[in-house]
Write a structure and sequence with these properties.
The chain is mainly β and 955 residues long. The chain contains 13 helices and 61 strands. A hairpin with a 4-residue loop joins strand 20 and strand 21.
Length: 955
């Protein structure tokens, strides 16, 4: 006789996650992992276990359990109490025949469920276990026994509220059908601005069921709900929200809006912008919230690139918005991205307005060097901007204007909480109405060159002069964003910007000139994100962009003759790239990022000049190159103590000329960043180190006699070398309550510079030079403090930037054009109910410029008359006077139930300080200077007092 064992062990108390529960039944041990949950046994175990001595009742009726092997359990009673027992296979066989015979009945149209179960037991040789109360009073149609057992059971139990589980081939447990878990879907946003709140906490009150939102504020939480369950959302610095959980089981995903603990006025949230508009994160990264960038003193509107100039180490020495110098670098050494699209024309109106529409930007990440291995193509800084729309339920509109342009946008929900479309447009009206702000900026931009000289001739009354400058710019943003499923996102972004300047001049009916300048930049990007699991995400991006810069000039002495001389330059840069990277959160302390990027770039430059007699001079240059890069980064993090990132970017750049590949440039660029918090979050040390390469950069315009223009983009190859750079920085930060302090020391080197620089040659200021080196060293200090209504922001940079070229100055270093040893920004804001007042004081030590040291003369080859020229000792051997100005702004916020608005007035250079951009020197022949040769110096002033009125309405 074979020994069969039936033994129960007391299970631990029930929990939603289940516990390790097992029992031995007959010929094998059946473990808990063969059950979907403890619920499958909950109806058997209490009935089979006695209150005190674990004895089984002798009959199924007394126990309340209908079990076909009740007689066998009764026979095993003593074995369960004492240990084990032996039984005869003959008895088991007899019982197996006896019970099916008792359960046989003729099929009827309706029968009790218990009776139908007995028929199934007889037909399929199985046994059911269930609580009598479960089947009491349930009647079902007689089952059709000619099908498979699973099909019979599915039909039998349909509509009964019961489910079944098979323990093994012969035993089936009946149980109540568990409620289906619901997928709760929502998005946590900031009230008032609808800015997503990443990593907010969402949970069911009174349970351990919860989750965190993703980077876009979305969450999905599977849960079994009761009618009174509530969902709680919380975020640091914001008031929590409690809502009925059932309402989040509906589609589309519902929004939860959390109000900050800061003061809220009506429906418009007013914050201390100097604290809330940016956050410093790991590495050298600052995260900006564009919706919280305030009315900028002096400029009025929240220009994104001007807002960056409040950070130490970022400046624009020519007062523009876009010509940013990041720690001594030039503007073309910065990578500006809009949804992954590289923006080559970064500023409208010759740089005074940034080419990025601030009203449709969602977030902005800024790196003053020290950027991660996923970024390439530049050597100084990265500005990575992500655009809207939000996934909302309602249409959103916004319109506004200032003294230069009109703008408007629409956010259109295509499918509520699932897909949305953004359309935005800005256009200047300066070709129709020329405000004082426009005139001041125009005069500043053209403070030198042909436009300035024509104006001088007109003012001196040497003849009747007529000028008609016409300028306008526009940009368009469009974006479609969709959640394709619970784990995938897709967006398609379009950007297009254009500037056009037409300048006609006539003088005394003897000279007619025309200048035409047009700059266009457009791009398209496809961005796809897939969350394969909570800890593994894939990002894919495909981008194409085009930059075009065309300049035309002609003059004639007779308006009926098309041209006496005409001139044209054309520069185009085309760029495409494909990038794929994966983020893997291996462990809460370990994160891995791996990726690949392929990029192709092609640049063309054309030069044409033609005279009326048919003489022509043309030239063309084509540049082309491809880049392939592999990158990876590993991050180790101990919360509130340490975060270290080790990265490596490996690139292969292949220049192409005449469809033939030239020698490849290979580079392995390590990246390192670390943040250490020895005493908690209040104090940290910061370190960054990296090397970089750049294969496309900008040269000054060839038509500089106009006085302004866009530079020429070229690609490294036979004539131009790739830029290389290295930078390291050390710093620390401290926070105590509402006071914050950050200090950074950095050193930076950029090699293989090619540019036009002032040299020591006679009467020659702009020859072409190569193989230069830039070195920058400095301290950046940032102090912030806020009170309930008043905030204070102070940034200070102490640095030195030098250039070194073997071609001149005996190879000795000299100050770079953007070398300002001291830069100070002092910003204050005051909030009074719905009024905001702000002021910023700027101070900069004098920039370098080149002064002549002597004058020489040489005879003219034809006439023999002396030609006078200036002599230069060293480049940038002088310093302009110190620069300082005060900017002011005031705005009033108003709102109704349907819309909100802002009306404001700003003043740039409030006390009208005469700051200088440059000083030019010209030799003066003796006949014009009392018989003695002399030097005439022409000062180029910057922008004086400039007011600006602006209004913005959203609904």
């Amino acid at each position: 006789m074979a020994t069969e064992v039936f033994k129960f062990k007391d299970p631990p108390s029930y929990s939603p996650q289940g516990e390790i529960v097992f029992f031995d039944l007959m010929v094998g041990r059946i473990r808990k992992n063969q059950f979907s949950s403890w619920t499958e046994l909950i109806y058997l175990y209490p009935k089979l276990k006695s209150e005190r001595n674990r004895k089984l009742r002798p009959d199924s009726a007394a126990s309340g359990v209908n079990f076909p092997l009740a007689a066998e359990f009764s026979n095993r009673r003593n074995q369960i109490v004492g240990g084990y027992f032996k039984a005869s296979k003959i008895i088991l066989f007899a019982l197996a025949i006896f019970f099916p015979l008792l359960s046989y009945a003729q099929p009827v149209q309706k029968a009790p469920l218990r009776q139908a179960l007995q028929q199934i037991e007889a037909q399929f040789q199985v046994s059911f276990a269930y609580d009598d109360a479960l089947v009491e009073g349930i009647e079902v149609p007689s089952p059709d026994m000619d099908r498979e057992l699973e099909a019979v059971l599915a039909e039998l139990l349909e509509g009964t509220g019961l489910a079944y589980s098979r323990i093994d081939e012969g035993y089936i447990v009946l149980k109540p059908r568990p409620p289906e878990p619901l997928l709760l879907c929502g998005r946590v946003l900031e009230a008032g601005t609808d800015t997503p709140l990443p990593y907010a906490t969402v949970y069911l009150r009174g349970t351990a069921t919860g989750c965190s939102t993703d980077a876009e504020g979305y969450f999905e939480l599977p849960a079994i709900l009761g009618p009174a369950d509530t969902l709680v959302a919380s975020y640091v610095g914001y008031q929590g929200a409690t809502l009925p959980a059932q309402s989040f089981a509906q589609q589309p995903c519902r929004a939860i809006r959390l109000a900050p603990t800061a003061t809220q006025l009506a429906s418009v949230l007013v914050k201390e912008f100097t604290i809330d508009m940016l956050e410093r994160e790991h590495g050298n990264r600052y995260h900006f919230h564009p919706g919280q960038i305030p009315t900028l003193p002096g400029w009025g509107e929240p220009d994104l690139l001007r807002g960056l100039q409040l950070l130490p180490g970022i400046s624009a020495s020519d007062e523009s918005a876009s010509n940013l110098s990041i720690r001594g670098g030039t503007s073309d050494q910065n990578l500006l991205l809009w949804d992954g699209i590289p923006i080559y024309h970064t500023g409208h109106f010759f740089g005074y307005y940034s080419a990025i529409n601030p009203y449709v930007a969602q977030s902005m990440d800024v790196y003053r060097g020290g950027f991660g291995a996923e970024y390439g193509a530049r050597v100084s800084g990265v500005i990575d901007i992500t655009g809207k729309p939000e996934l909302g339920k309602e249409l959103r509109y916004g319109v506004g204007m200032n003294h230069i342009n009109l703008h408007g946008f629409m956010e259109i929900p295509i499918k509520k909480e699932r897909a949305a479309l953004l359309l935005a447009l800005r256009r200047s009206y300066t070709d129709l109405i020329q405000s004082r702000a426009y005139q001041n900026i125009f005069n500043r931009i053209f403070a030198k060159g042909r436009v300035y000289e024509n104006r001088e001739a007109e003012q001196k009354g040497q003849g009747e002069a007529l000028t008609s400058p016409v300028f306008h710019y526009a940009d368009i943003n469009a974006k479609w964003y969709a959640r394709l499923g619970n784990k995938s996102h897709l967006s398609v972004s379009l950007y297009a910007g254009s500037d056009q300047f037409d300048y006609n001049f006539s003088f005394a009916d003897d000279l007619y000139t025309q200048d035409q300048l047009r700059v266009d930049n457009s791009g398209l990007s496809f961005n796809y994100k897939m969350d394969w699991a909570e800890n593994f995400t894939t990002h894919a991006r495909l981008v194409a962009s085009t930059f075009t810069n065309e300049y035309r000039f002609h003059y004639t002495f007779d308006p009926d003759i098309p041209f006496e001389f005409r001139f044209r330059t054309f520069n185009q840069l085309r760029d495409w790239s494909l990038q794929l990277h994966h983020d893997w959160q291996v462990h809460p302390r370990h994160h891995l990022r791996l990726g690949w990027m392929g990029q192709g770039q092609k640049a063309d430059f054309q030069y044409e000049e033609e005279r009326r007699d048919g003489n022509r001079n043309t030239g063309a240059e084509a540049f082309e190159g491809t880049t392939s890069a592999l990158f990876g980064a590993y991050t180790y993090k101990v919360p509130d103590r340490l975060e270290v990132t080790l990265g490596l970017r490996s690139e292969i750049f292949t220049p192409i000329r005449a469809d033939s590949a030239l020698d490849q440039h290979r580079a392995a660029m390590p990246r390192f960043s670390a943040s250490y918090y020895p005493f908690g979050k209040q104090f940290f040390f910061q370190a960054n180190l990296g090397t970089y390469r750049q294969y496309v950069y900008q040269m000054p315009p060839f038509y500089s006699d106009l006085g302004a223009g866009e530079g020429v983009w070229v690609i490294a190859g036979r004539n131009f070398r790739p830029l290389y750079a290295g930078q390291w920085s050390l710093g620390f930060g401290y926070q105590l309550g509402r006071f914050e302090m950050e200090v950074d020391y950095y050193q930076k080197l950029v090699g293989n510079l090619s540019s036009w620089k002032v040299t020591l040659e006679e009467d020659v200021e702009n020859p072409f030079t190569q193989d230069g080196t830039l070195r920058a060293t400095g301290f950046d200090i940032l102090l912030k403090h806020r009170w309930p209504r008043y905030t204070l922001w102070l940034s200070y940079s102490l640095g030195a930037v030098t250039n070194e070229f073997d071609a001149f100055n005996a190879g000795e270093p000299f100050p770079a054009d953007n070398d300002q040893r001291h830069l100070l920004n002092f910003t204050q804001t005051l909030r009074l109910n719905k009024w905001n007042l702000s002021a910023t004081f700027f101070y900069g030590s004098g920039k370098p410029f080149t002064m002549p040291t002597d004058m020489g003369a040489r005879p003219d080859e034809q006439t023999g008359e002396p030609i006078f020229f200036l002599k230069y000792d060293k480049p940038n051997n002088g310093r302009l006077p110190a620069y300082h100005r005060l900017d002011l702004a005031v705005d009033y916020r108003f709102d109704t139930e349907r819309w909100t608005g802002k009306l404001g007035l700003s003043a740039f250079n409030f006390y009208n300080r005469r700051n200088l951009f440059d000083i030019d020197f010209f030799p003066v022949p003796p006949q014009y200077n009392d018989g003695q040769p002399g030097v005439y110096n022409l000062e180029r002033p910057m922008l004086g007092f400039t007011p600006n009125l602006f209004v913005q309405i959203e609904w």
